[in-house]
Amino acid sequence: MRKLKNVLLVSALALSAVTATVTIAETVDVEGGTWSYGYTTGINAYSDYYHSYNYHGSRVKNRNNGDTNTANAESGVWSKAWIWDVWDPATFYYSSDGGY
């Protein structure tokens, strides 16, 4: 019976790992805008920034291989930068006055 419980537990954990969507993210108000950054579903990293009256930008960089993406946007529009990032650490940036 104990072996059956272990098999059922392992099966349940495997199923939840396959069906789960993992998001590790932060959203903060900075320099007159809103910055959202983090990881989604374990496969990408993103940095999004919104500013209502300045041209602005966001950037995300993979710290292991240097892969970088930059996005700039007009006032009132989100800048959205993202990279494929399977479990690598990333660094996140925003620019509130002029973009990148």
UniProtKB/TrEMBL annotation:
Residues 1-25 form the signal peptide. InterPro entries: Lactococcin_972 (IPR006540). Keywords: Signal. The keyword Signal applies. Pfam families: Lactococcin_972. The keyword Signal applies. This is Lactococcin 972 family bacteriocin. It comes from Streptococcus mitis.
